[in-house]
Fold each of these.
Amino acid sequence: DTAVSQTPKYLVTQMGNDKSIKCEQNLGHDTMYWYKQDSKKFLKIMFSYNNKELIINETVPNRFSPKSPDKAHLNLHINSLELGDSAVYFCASSPRGQGGGNTIYFGEGSWLTVV
Amino acid sequence: GQQLNQSPQSMFIQEGEDVSMNCTSSSIFNTWLWYKQEPGEGPVLLIALYKAGELTSNGRLTAQFGITRKDSFLNISASIPSDVGIYFCGAGGTSYGKLTFGQGTILTVHP
C-alpha cells in the first residue's frame, strides 16, 4: 500500500526516558514533516525536511531531534521526556508541484503518553 | 501568529441532512485543504484547493476557496453515519508544508 507509515502507534513511557518514532513514506514525495496534535486536537507543525535537509524548525525544544537518513524516512527522537510531551505525533509528506508543497498527507499517528 | 477560525465547533445532525462548515482568516493563503480525522487515525485529505474562487467536489463533498483568499467552506450533502468525525481546515502560504489548521468541527450524524 502507498502511504505514510509510522511506528510505534502507541507508546507509554516514563518521564526522563528517551524514545524514537520512525516514519517512512513510499509516495515518492520530497518533503516530510512532523506535526503535533495536542489534547484539544490542535495540529501544529514541528519540523519539515526537504530531501534530507531541514527547512522548518518551529521553536521546538532541542530535546526533539529529527533525523532523515534519506528522503523517504524521517524519524523523531525525543530525549528526557516530560509529561507535557504527551500528545499525538503525526508524520506527513507532500509532493512538489503547484500547491503540491502544501498538499500534506498524514500518517496514522503515534500516541505518546508520558507518565 | 496566523490563525484559522473554524466554525461551527460541533454539529449534531440527522442522517440525510446537508452540512456546512467554514474557515476564515485575517491572512491571505495560497492553498486551502480540508481533512477528516476519525478516532485513532490520522487526518485524511478530502479536498485541496489551489486557486481563489475554485470550487471542487469529491463525491458528496464540495469545497470552495474564497475569492479574498482568506476563507473556505466545506459542504457535505445527504450525510450518512460514516461521515462522523472531526473535520479540519488547513491553509498554506509560501512556506511550503507549513499549514495552519482550524480548531476542527466535530460532526455527529444520528441514524
Amino acid sequence: QKEVEQDPGPLSVPEGAIVSLNCTYSNSAFQYFMWYRQYSRKGPELLMYTYSSGNKEDGRFTAQVDKSSKYISLFIRDSQPSDSATYLCAARSGGSYIPTFGRGTSLIVHP
Amino acid sequence: DAGVIQSPRHEVTEMGQEVTLRCKPISGHDYLFWYRQTMMRGLELLIYFNNNVPIDDSGMPEDRFSAKMPNASFSTLKIQPSEPRDSAVYFCASSPGQGTSTDTQYFGPGTRLTVL
C-alpha cells in the first residue's frame, strides 16, 4: 500500500461545477502537503502548498488538510475546461525534504 | 529562464540497448531529482542530488540504472541494459532549496521511453 492514496478517476464534470479531489495518507509524520497539476504530456507543476491542518485558498482553488483523519482535499470552484488535467497530491514529513506522491486523479471538465 | 530541459523527449530502443537520458536544471537550483512515472506505480523518485552530490539513490530499481551529475548544469540517467519493463516517462526536476523547502520542484517535460 502506498503511503499516499488517490482514486485515479477519471472524474468528469460539467463546466462551472465545484470539483472535489481527495487523498488519504498513512504516515502520521507528514506535516507538509502539496497539490501538483499535470497536463497531458507535461511535467507536474506545483499548484498548492499547505502546512499541517487547515485550509488555504488561492483564487478558485482551496486546499484542505484534516490531519486527524489523514485526509487531503483540493476544491476547484467554477471549474473550467482548462482545469482538465491530472492532479497529484503529495506529502512529506518535517524531517525529509522529499515528498511522497499519490498516483494522481484525472479530471475532465467538459463544456 | 527556459525551465528544466530534458532530452530526448522520446526514445524508442530495443531490449538490451543502453539508454542515456539528459537533464539541464534551472540555473541556481541546488537540488536535482530524477523520477519515473507509470500508470501502475505513479510518480516514483529514483535519485536526488544536492550540489551535484547524490544524496539518496534508494529508489533506483537495480544496478542497471545509474545517474551522474558532473556539474551544476547537467545530469544523466543511464539504463544499461534496458528492458521492456523500463518503459515509462522519466522526469527530471530541480529545486532552489536554499532557505526554502524543496517542495517547489520544477519539472521538465519528461522523456517518454519505450523499450521494445
Amino acid sequence: QKEVEQDPGPLSVPEGAIVSLNCTYSNSAFQYFMWYRQYSRKGPELLMYTYSSGNKEDGRFTAQVDKSSKYISLFIRDSQPSDSATYLCAMSSRGSQGNLIFGKGTKLSVKP
Amino acid sequence: DAGVTQSPTHLIKTRGQQVTLRCSPKSGHDTVSWYQQALGQGPQFIFQYYEEEERQRGNFPDRFSGHQFPNYSSELNVNALLLGDSALYLCASSVWGTNEKLFFGSGTQLSVL
C-alpha cells in the first residue's frame, strides 16, 4: 500500500461546478497537509497548507483534513477554465523538514 | 522578488553520461530540496541541503549527489545516467526550522537517450 493514494482522474467538469479532490494516507505520523497546483511543464504551486485536523478556506478553495479517517479533501467553488491543472496532495510528519510525500496528482479539466 | 530559479530548462543526455542541474532559492530562503517527478507521477524527494550539508535523503542511489554554496544556491549531480533517470527535476526552497511550506521552481526536464 502506498503511503498516499490519490485518484489520477482525469476529472472533467463544466465551468461553475464545485470540484472535490481527495487523498487518503496510511501514515498516522503525518501532521502537515498541503495541496499544490501544477500546470503543464511547470513546477508545483502551493495552494493550501494545513497543520493537523480541521478546515481552511482561502477564496474559492477549502481544504479539509480528517486525521481520524486519514482523509484530506480540496474543494474548489465556482470552478473556472483557468483552474484546469493537475492537483497534487502532499503531506509530511513533524521534523521531516522538506521531505514531502506526494500523491500522483489528479488532472482536472474545467470546460467553458 | 525572484522566485526559485532553475537551469537549464531542458537537457538531453545519453546513457552513462553525467549531468549537473542548478538552483537558486527564493530570496530569504536558506534551505534547498530536490525532487524527481516522472511522467504521470507525483514528485519524489531526493535530498535536502541546509548550511551546505545534506540534511535528509530519500531513497535514491549514490549516483545522485548534491552541493549547496554559501549563497544558498544548490547543484544536483547525477552520474552514470540511466534511461530511467529521464524526468522533471524540481528544486524547492524554504526557511529552515519554520514549517513544511516549499516553493518550487519550474524544473529541469532531463531526457536520457
